[in-house]
Fold each of these.
Amino acid sequence: MELYQKTAAELSRLLQDKEITAVEVFNSFTERIDEVDPHLKVFITCTLDSALETAAAVDRRRMENEELHPLAGVPVAIKDNFCTEGIKTTCASKMLESYIPPYDAAVVEKLKRIGMPILGKTNMDEFAMGSSTENSAFFVTRNPWDLERVPGGSSGGSAAAVAAGMVPLALGSDTGGSIRQPAALCGITGLRPTYGRVSRYGLIAFASSLDQIGPLALNALDCSLLLEVIAGYDQRDSTSLPHEVPQYSAAAGRELEGVRIGLIEENISANFDPEIKFAVLKMAALLEENGARITEVSLPHTDYGLSAYYLIAPSEAASNLGRYDGVRYGYSADGDNIISLFSRTRGQGFGAEVKRRIMIGTYSLSAGYYDAYYLQAMKVRTLIRRDYEKAFQNFDILVGATTPTPAFKLGEKADDPLKMYLSDVCNITDALAGVPSLSIPAGLHSSGLPMGMQLTAAPLNEGLLFQAAAVLEKCSDSPPQQRTALNLTGRGEL
Ligand code: GLN
């Protein structure tokens, strides 16, 4: 087995035992990148020189028997909406095509501090608006399981990178599904942590009451290791939670005896692909065999989730994106006067979906429509939050499908925004409620494509999610090493 096929935990062990060096790990992953990135198109920017320096420094320090973090020397990729000092940060937008931030995002500081080589910045939907990575202003990223299909979005580059063995770990952001949906479509594991668990300082804002940063990896243990690194209080993000960071990785291995699990009726809907529904029921049965108690539960306001999200997120986006005016940041068009400078800059700098969101958001916040749209959506959000609070009085974990279908074809939903929006119908309500939610592989569809199951817990209960996921990994037949998708299935054969 090649090093690039190993999990982060396996690499960490081998590195700590000095059986391999961080430079060897770096070489294995970068060769893999050379081999597959021309086909998948994951990276907007590669930062291999600085990553190699980090790896070499880790090796030197380890030779001197310095005490290092277990993930020192384990490579990582980050979505291109995290600010990186001196490195282009584009948000996959023409607007920020040549923007070089003067500082690092909090999560980037943390990765650097412990010596994780950052291999590059991954492709995404422009400003994280989308579900397929097709909204990137630069190029589309392909799904490693089938090159004619999307990897999901908006963190599609990060998900494809892990699935294809280009990195063992990646970071994404999730506003309404952007970590979990691509994780499911690429056959890997991805966590949206509790709102406020991870500092967003230096994350380019989309919708601030929803944005959250989280890990993508091959399995739950790897996700928990990366969450331990990035979680924690940060005074520079006013929504940051003060709670201490538990040792999440200790959760894997605990029993499920007596854990109460609710099967969300709305997320195994009759409208979903029947094989996905079946896969989720099969996984639920496995949880039951392992001592959990399973009952069906309804989150009755789920039907209104999508409409509420597509008013709240665009409203916040419309105000967050007001700063891109051609004066303070990024792209600037010529104009005869200040108004034409603003409108030409924004007209040329933003893509179609971003403009659509800005228009919806501006409309819903405008005098005369505010009560009917934005305020109404906020009331729905409260009802959805209450659905969860009520459910968590009786259940520890809620489960359902991550997506209604496996990965769709490139271009299939590109002309129909509503169809595209519906692809994260299972991911929206968790985000509105601010609760942690994990997508894990749920086996393969008869088409050969991966399917995902989503597990959700009450705020700050990420550990429970890892615990259940680890039990399922142990007893289900889905291959944990799905990142070798390109070689294993033959579908995406290069
Ligand atoms: N697909 C959703 C959207 O387009 C979610 C995006 C996200 O989580 N960043 O808004």
Note: The chain is about 40% helix and 10% strand.
Amino acid sequence: MNTKEYYQEIAKKLEFDTDPFINGKFVKGGGPAFDSINPANGKVIATLSSNTVEEVYEAEKAAREAFDDKRWRGLAPAERKEILFNLADLLMEHREELAVMETLDAGKPITDNYEDDVPEAADTFRFQAEAIDKLEDAVTAGDPDHLSLVVREPLGVVGAITPWNFPLGEAVIKAAPALAAGNSVVLKPSSLTPFTTLRLAKLASEAGMPDGVFNVVLGSGDTIGDAMGKHPEMEGLTFTGSTDVGKKLLIQAGETNAKRIFLEMGGKSPFIIMPDVKDLDHAAEEAIGAAYWNMGENCTANSRIMVHKDIKDKFTEVFLEKVAEMTTGDPLDPDNDMGALIEKSHMEKVLRYIETGKKEGAEILCGGGQILKETGGNFIEPTVFDGLTQDMTIARDEIFGPVTGLMTFESEEEAIKIANDTRYGLQATLFTDDLSTAHRMSRELRAGNVSVNCYSEGDLGTPFGGYKQSGFFGRENSVWALRQYMELKTIWIEL
Ligand code: NAP
């Protein structure tokens, strides 16, 4: 494993791209300049230029020209595949640099970025690239005088708006299937974390992607994201972020051109432990990842740990021992499990939730405050509440920080009722030693992803997305994601 000093040396030599990437090159934007801040020390990493609304339209125009003249969608799937494979290779060649860049920009632990996020980004391109020359279209069973073909075609220009919690991963999970399907893409990363997305665009160009096919615009959600939502011609818009913004984009799509819209939004996921579970140590280990992975800045963070009353005391003891072993601090130090929260205002919001939890009657078992203030960074200790009840704010709202709460139930029916009592439905975790219970309860949980006896979001081959207000009309990953970036066409020929 590399050391903190090793990563610090890479950090010193990093160069940051600071302008939007449009039509194959970095072009200074005409909008207001903005700073990207390192969440671990509060210092400015670099100042970037943002776009104007008119420049978003220019980016769309460049993407549309690329679409219309078929420089990308007109390539044989095997040719697109080769370019996307080149890009995957380049991501791995730049693995250390990208991992460090992400850590500096997003406060995420270096080990997560190096071991998971960057390789997974490369694998996502490989998966989607590999799929495109395997899909088959259909000839339906028509009458003898007609030939009926059902074929898929790319949507056209696809907008993508991504959040700050997994900046590279979220850009790739959208760009890879959209590009593999033959679309042109205009992507807006969160202004809090633009750097790895800009580097991705540059690497895509180096990999052989034609100009105009993959564009990155910069600027705030309120102006640039809003302009994408209202764009009258983009055929698709894929978004990951908060439920409130997602719903607004849905309205804008309806008010403009009925663009195809795919929304991945918030969550409030339960972690249920049934009384038959013998290996509570394993359950507690998984609960740590479920609650604190990425500092809890995770749409599938399990911030409601629901334990059957008969095993609650035993589980709590084991869980708290594991929480005590967690280390929080400089995210460039591979020894730290948790880094910094994305920005000061977000940290303050999480701290307010902790205060609300106390006021509403939940008891703090550990954590509960900001630490390492002297660093200038946004660090909060892993926090565990006891006595959580469904009426409490912290049991209903998405906290998006390292805060979880323990609650009890007495029967399977009650567990399902509590778990489903939320406007969200992204993910649920279930621990049981009984196969029938696992199947029965998995069917009753109203969530797009249910993991049994582990905490997981699945892999690249499984669709990821949410029920209820966690998602709308779309899934990430797998061939389902690839297909959603294509229209279906029926061709009916008289013979
Ligand atoms: P957010 O505030 O909704 O922002 C997400 C993206 O939307 C950012 O690029 C943001 O731009 C942009 N945006 C903000 N306001 C906009 C507007 N009015 N019109 C168009 N775009 C706008 O969410 P976030 O705080 O970045 O991310 C956290 C949320 O994402 C959580 O709710 C989390 O659960 C969710 N999330 C869901 C998934 C999933 O797969 N379901 C995965 C990850 C995160 P700026 O930041 O530049 O303003």
Note: The radius of gyration is 23 Å.
